């Protein structure tokens, strides 16, 4: 499967002699050295791929470069160096007219502050991208109506934006992006202006839509909990550079450095981890058919804890062919709930009981 989106060694430098600044960065200069000369390195050597149907989240604190990176992905900012490839097409080599065509048909964006036209109805706002494309009115209204329904706004088509709550306005922005049927959806801190409960509701909405539509999404956020909830893969940025790329479990269980680890301290691990992340994989077995309660690699941490409470031994983890792929001792679960990274604890006897329970019933 080829990547839908590729960023290759992207740099964005603001200030004097940007090309010279990129050369200095490549030779080992840091951001502070350039800033002393009146130059700002907003993005430094960023590379990643996004697969079709994947939600790729870029997270970092304010000033980390994540929004600048996003704007290079659709040509709103020209990179100082590097390439952006979408479906194999080099966006950095396109003319301004060609870029506008790509943005109108292939790439949609959902902004943080809704960006709705106050003098247009909800339906007209949702249909705006299609209007730009030159789609006939009857077709664009039909497609916009369908998109609004997908976003939970059926019946609000004739309303005005100021009649809607913040969450509903953001749903209109999402519907506008979906109506164009673009291949890539860019979302820049799209939920951060919303109240916590509405924000959670919008996250739920996006998760449900993604299950059905399988869009390719790049989502920008400064909230690690949001990143872990939404992202298939997550890129963590610091001072213009990507310091780690991985799944939510990778970021949580195997942080690349102390900076990444500091983000994970307040994360609710039970909402992120699965049996695959916490199990002891040293013990594996052949095909087994166990009469005791077992887990699969996809079993959530919460469900795993519940199973552990019901069995007198470590929980056996079986794959789809009923083969033993690991075990989860109770103390290991406790370890993952704390600050420690789930290192094994001395409980070989309960673990052996789990293995014997599986194999004796095989």
Number of domains: 2
Range of strand content: 15-25%
Per CATH, the superfamily of the largest domain is: P-loop containing nucleotide triphosphate hydrolases
Please tell me what the overall shape is.
Answer: globular
**Helix content percent band:** 40-55%
Instruction: Please state how the strands of the largest beta sheet are arranged side by side.
Output: 6-7-8-3-9-10
Question: What's the order of the H and E elements?
Answer: EHHEEHEEHEHHHHEHEHEEHHHHEEHH
Distance between the termini: 38 Å
Q: How many strands, what sense, and barrel or not for the largest sheet?
A: 6 strands, mixed
Structural class: alpha/beta
**What value does the average pLDDT take?**
86
**Count of individual beta strands:** 12
Instruction: Output the CATH topology of the largest domain.
Output: Rossmann fold
What is the CATH first-level class name of the largest domain? Alpha Beta
Note the total helix count. Answer: 16
What is the CA-based Rg, rounded?
A: 24 Å
Please identify, by name, the CATH architecture of the largest domain. 3-Layer(aba) Sandwich
Low-confidence region ranges: 340-350
Family: Belongs to the ABC transporter superfamily.
Pfam families: ABC_tran
Keywords: ATP-binding, CBS domain, Nucleotide-binding, Transport
GO molecular function, one term: ATP binding
How would you describe this structure to a colleague?
By secondary structure, this protein is an alpha/beta fold. The protein folds into 2 domains: 5-106 and 182-267, P-loop containing nucleotide triphosphate hydrolases (Rossmann fold, 3-Layer(aba) Sandwich), CATH 3.40.50.300; 271-360, CBS-domain (Roll). Helix content is 40%, strand content 19%. The strands form 3 sheets. It has a 6-stranded mixed β-sheet with strand order 6-7-8-3-9-10, sandwiched between helices. α9 (196-213) links the parallel β7 (184-188) and β8 (216-221). α7 (137-150) crosses α8 and α8 packs parallel to α9 (196-213). It is globular and about 65 Å long. The protein starts with a strand and ends with a helix. Mean pLDDT is 86; it is low at 340-350. It holds the Pfam family ABC_tran. Belongs to the ABC transporter superfamily.
């Amino acid at each position: 499967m080829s990547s839908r989106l590729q960023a290759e060694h992207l740099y964005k430098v603001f200030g004097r002699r940007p090309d010279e600044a990129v050369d200095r960065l490549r030779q080992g200069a840091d951001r502070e050295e350039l800033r002393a000369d009146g130059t700002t390195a907003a993005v430094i050597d960023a590379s990643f791929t996004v697969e079709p149907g994947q939600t790729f989240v870029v997270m970092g604190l304010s000033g980390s470069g994540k929004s600048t990176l996003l704007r290079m992905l659709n040509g709103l900012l020209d990179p100082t160096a590097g390439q952006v490839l979408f479906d194999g097409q080099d966006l950095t080599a396109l003319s301004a007219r060609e870029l506008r065509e790509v943005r109108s048909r292939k790439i949609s964006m959902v902004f943080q502050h809704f960006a709705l036209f106050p003098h247009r109805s909800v339906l007209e706002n949702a249909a705006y991208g299609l209007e730009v494309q030159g789609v006939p009115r009857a077709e664009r209204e039909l497609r916009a109506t369908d998109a609004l329904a997908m976003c939970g706004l059926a019946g609000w088509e004739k309303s005005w934006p100021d009649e809607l709550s913040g969450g509903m306005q953001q749903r209109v922005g999402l519907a506008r992006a979906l109506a164009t049927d673009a291949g890539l959806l860019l979302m820049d801190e799209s939920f951060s202006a919303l109240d916590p409960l509405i924000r959670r509701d919008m996250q739920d909405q996006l998760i449900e839509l993604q299950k059905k539509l399988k869009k390719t999404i790049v989502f920008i956020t400064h909230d690690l909990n949001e990143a872990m909830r939404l992202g298939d893969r997550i890129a963590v940025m610091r001072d213009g550079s990507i310091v780690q790329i991985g799944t939510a479990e990778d970021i949580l269980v195997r942080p690349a450095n102390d900076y990444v680890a500091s983000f994970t301290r307040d994360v609710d691990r039970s909402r992120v981890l699965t049996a695959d992340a916490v199990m002891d994989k040293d013990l594996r077995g052949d095909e087994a058919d166990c009469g005791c309660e077992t887990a699969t690699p996809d079993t959530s941490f919460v469900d795993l804890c519940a199973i552990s409470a019901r069995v007198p031994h470590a929980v056996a983890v079986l794959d789809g062919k009923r083969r033993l792929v690991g075990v989860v001792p109770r103390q290991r679960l406790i370890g993952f709930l704390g600050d420690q990274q789930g290192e094994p604890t001395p409980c070989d006897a309960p673990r052996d009981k789990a293995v014997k329970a599986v194999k004796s019933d095989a």
